[in-house]
Amino acid sequence: ASMGRFIAGLPKAEFHVHLEGTLEADMKFALAKRNGLSLPYADVAAMKRSYVYHDLPSFLKIYYDGMQVLLTEQDFYDLAYGYLRKAASQNVLYAEMFFDPQEHLKRGVAIEAVIGGITRARGDAAKSLGIESQLILCFMRDLSAGSAMEALDAALPYKDKLIGVGLDSDEKGNPPEKFAEHFAKARAAGLHVTMHCDVNQENTLEHIRTALLDLKTERIDHGGNIVQSPELMALARSRGIPFTVCPTFSGQVIEDGRPINALRQMLDAGLKVSVNSDDPAYMGSEYITEVLIRAQKDSTLTPAELVRIERNAFETAWIPAQQRDGYL
Ligand code: HPA
Ligand code: ZN
């Protein structure tokens, strides 16, 4: 219990949270009602019971299904403000949040509504709740390269509202180099670059290698399989590459059918690891405090390690050094 209080009180930063993955079932119902849509579930409990998945593709199906209720600027505002309010209540002082514009553009939502609503929520949350935040546009790697480029081009007029670009969705058959041109263009526009390397994916070490060596990613999201390559671990450590681990989803690497505690091994190897909630609305509504409490038990994290993790997190922030030092 005292460990729980310690974790709750720890000043925190979050770097791997998909805004659409914070869309709680009750908000989904409220937005559906507001937008005149009907949902195929009797109530919140029935909807939550449908959140059953066993791998990345089966998770993604539920996740993309869920976000279809997001249509207006106000919807995106409510989504982002809801997350920021929850995060602030858990003593998150700073967050960098992912969003998936392609899935919204697909159903005719304007990029202005998406970025506009989220940006307005960020401003209000900073003023009213004291939580600072920034936004990372993710390319959906399982859609075409052309679709991702359209989203980037649509968003670039709003690049001052973005801090970086990322890469998410189904990794199988979609290596990071599929988006080399996109990352280069985003960089040229002054944006930072991060990429998901989900755990236990086909060619996962190759994807980590390409992301680090060819695409010069500044961070890796998940990335737990790196513990299987001493060479890549040494490279990531020497470059100080941050890893945004989400224990709920990527804490366990499977090797020869046996689970490896990737978070523990990454910490022990001196990698710059932070702990994050990923898609809390679909992961038992466990936000960063609950995720850290569980990780503490599963990986027997000491108080010093918990402080180390949050220091790593704040050091990961894409903000001016002076602002970053203010948190440390
Ligand atoms: N990995 C890949 N795609 C995703 C994730 C993730 O953790 N969350 C939402 N989309
Ligand atoms: Zn993710």
Automatic annotation (TrEMBL):
GO molecular function ontology, one term from the record: hydrolase activity
Cofactor(s) the record lists: Zn(2+)
Catalytic activity: adenine + H2O + H(+) = hypoxanthine + NH4(+)
Residues that, per the record, bind Zn(2+): 16, 18, 196, 278
Cofactor note: Binds 1 zinc ion per subunit.
EC class (word): hydrolase
Domain Adenosine deaminase: 11-328
Residues involved in substrate binding: 279
EC number(s) recorded for this UniProt protein: 3.5.4.2
Site location (Important for catalytic activity): 222
InterPro entries linked: A/AMP_deam_AS, A_deaminase_dom, ADE, Ado/ade_deaminase, Metal_Hydrolase, TAT_signal
UniProt KW keywords: Cytoplasm, Hydrolase, Metal-binding, Nucleotide metabolism, Signal, Zinc
Pfam families: A_deaminase (PF00962)
Top-level lineage group: Bacteria
HAMAP family linked: Adenine_deaminase
Function: Catalyzes the hydrolytic deamination of adenine to hypoxanthine. Plays an important role in the purine salvage pathway and in nitrogen catabolism.
Name used for this protein in its record: Adenine deaminase
